[in-house]
Amino acid sequence: MLLVTGITGHSGRYFLNELIEYNYEEPIRVIVRSSSDTTQLDKCGLNVEKAVGDLNDRDFIDKCMQNVDMVMHIYNIRYSPEIVKAAIKYNVKRVILVHTTGVYSKHKNASREYIDIENKVIDIAKEKTNNGLNITILRPTMIYGDLCDSNISKFIWMLDRSRIMPVIDHGNSLLQPVNARDLGKAFYKVLISPDATSGKAYDLSGERPIKLIEVFQLIAEGLDKKVVFINIPLNLGVFLARVLKVVSLGRLDYIEKVQRMGEDRHYSHQRATSDFGYEPIPFYNGLMIEVGQYLEKKRL
User: Fold this and answer.
1) pTM for the complete prediction?
2) CA geometry: angle 152, 221, 168, nearest 5 deg
3) Where are the domains of the chain?
4) What is the 3-state secondary structure (H, E, C) of 235-259?
5) Are strands 48-52 and 28-32 parallel, antiparallel or unpaired?
6) What are φ and ψ of residue 231, in 5° steps?
């Protein structure tokens, strides 16, 4: 049996699409909340069992892990240690953990927690050296693809409402956003390629690096908007973010977000391409789908 967390989320829904397209025949247990929209699950035609509960409940995790052979943990890196503990307890053969390239950030607050979690997962697995559990870690970059993402959709909204857009350090920082559709495909390929992927970690990035200013310019083009971009030096941006934090009594803390706007966040996916044929779509193609969704929603 395959256990999946986060299947009703952004990239999880595209993973479900892959399971449907390839008619996955094994039984699937999915962890969902009572508030989750399970319409797609209910109509998928697969052998699906829904487990309704909360991953903060360790007893619930234990119950879900019984009779499971493989785990695809998509929902929230913070639950990975408990997922791995339960998997070892119930002799699960394989766990695939979806984490983040945030582990590489040079800013301590952005990376420290993620690094600690990955180290904890490794330590838990090492404690049980004979448990037979194989772990694969997948690290997506900035995820985009449709209006439920928390990244590009915000940029689209901002550029549609402003004729003037501040950018940090001329927007020269490099990004490599990954489309949620590509992640769904990657999750499935890793699932069906245990020999090639078990025990490894992969960065899942977009087709190629792109400057932040180019992202903004493409969005403006898709919206048919003329936008003036105003350069804000990184040090000034951080200073203004600190002032805002003080004035708001700590309620508005954008310091690290501003810092990361000046940080390169591009990572090679060559290993994923070599091991399981990962081929992300061009950023422009995925972006125009999302801009089109925005414009359609705006017309309604």
Assistant:
1) 0.92
2) 55
3) 2-140, 152-172+210-261
4) HHHHHHHHHHHHHCCCCCCCHHHHH
5) parallel
6) -75, 135
CA distances for 216 relative to 104, 131, 284, 285, angstroms: 24, 48, 12, 15
Residues 26 and 48: their CA atoms lie apart, in Å, by: 9
Q: How far is CA 183 from CA 11, 47, 161, 223, 271, in A?
A: 6, 22, 30, 26, 15
**How many residues comprise the chain?**
300
Q: Which CATH architecture has domain 2-140?
A: 3-Layer(aba) Sandwich (3.40)
The three-state secondary structure class of 11 is helix
Distance CA 124, CA 24 (A): 31
The answer for residues whose C-beta is within 8 angstroms of residue 251's C-beta and 6 or more apart is: none
Q: Which residues of the chain have pLDDT under 50?
A: none
CB atoms within 10 A of CB 153: 18
**Confidence (pLDDT) at 131:** 62
Question: Using only C-alpha atoms, what is the Rg of the chain?
Answer: 20
At 211 the pLDDT is: 96
Q: Which residues of 111-130 are buried (b: 16+ CB within 10 A; e: fewer)?
A: beebeebbeebeebbeeeee
Distances (CA, A) of 176 to 2, 58, 61, 152: 31, 36, 34, 12
